[in-house]
Amino acid sequence: MPIAYNTRALTRIWVLKSTLIKSMTYMLFLQKVGKPA
């Protein structure tokens, strides 16, 4: 596998992971504050 392709795939996975974590954290924050999600 070419290194460039591998890096792009890893970056994509990392972005998806960080986005998922951010949204989950945001939802938890909303629940704590008491606003409807």
Question: SSE layout and pairings?
Answer:
Blueprint: H1 3-33
Structural class: mainly alpha
Please count the helical segments.
1
Task: Report the major sheet.
Answer: none
Number of domains: 1
Rounded to an integer in angstroms, the radius of gyration calculated over CA atoms is 15 Å
Count every beta strand, where a strand is a DSSP E run of 2 or more residues.
Answer: 0
What best-fitting shape do the alpha-carbon axes yield?
A: rod-shaped
Helix content class: over 70%
Amino- and carboxy-terminal Cα gap: 42 Å
Uncertain regions: pLDDT < 50 for 5+ in a row? none
Instruction: Provide the succession of SSEs.
Output: H
- Proportion of beta-strand residues: under 5%
Average residue-wise pLDDT: 87
Explain what you see.
The chain is built from 1 helix and no strands. It has 37 residues and is mainly α. It has one domain (1-32).
Produce a short descriptive summary.
The chain is mainly α. It has one helix at residues 3-33.
Describe this protein with a few key phrases:
37 residues, rod-shaped, single chain, 1 helix, mainly alpha
